[in-house]
Design brief:
The protein has four helices and no strands. The chain is mainly alpha-helical. The N and C termini lie far apart (49 Å).
Length: 121
């Protein structure tokens, strides 16, 4: 008797062991091996390093640091909050949007946050 073939969508596991990375559902991700770099965390770290050279007043620098630290926390959180990411980005843009020396680093943070925001919806 020939084996029956059915074309069914989804993950099929029939009488076998499943091991390794697995992901199911919309937006699911799985990886095998060493963790990959976190582009948002890297961009935030770079901008944090540049803050002292931007010539910001103490209050603006403190606010920018708080927004960047919040982004850093969200970038590495198991369940990041889309609202906190958006508020931190908005706050940074408001603080640093007119600072020419910060333009490139700020743009890098915003670009690195896009995939996370898309994933979170």
């Amino acid at each position: 008797m020939a084996a029956e073939y059915r074309n069914e969508s989804g993950i099929q596991n029939i009488n076998s062991v499943v091991s390794g990375a697995q992901a199911v559902g919309a937006g699911a991700q799985a990886s095998v091996g060493a963790p990959t770099a976190n582009p948002l965390a890297e961009a935030v770290t770079a901008l944090l390093g540049r803050l002292p050279s931007l010539g910001l007043d103490a209050e603006t620098a403190e606010d920018a640091t708080a927004h960047l630290e919040d982004l850093q926390t969200q970038a590495s959180a198991p369940s990041p909050s889309p609202g906190r990411v958006r508020r931190a980005l908005s706050g940074l843009t408001g603080l640093l949007g007119g600072v020419a020396a910060a333009a490139g680093a700020l743009a890098a943070v915003e670009k690195a946050a896009e995939p996370l925001l898309k994933l979170l919806g």
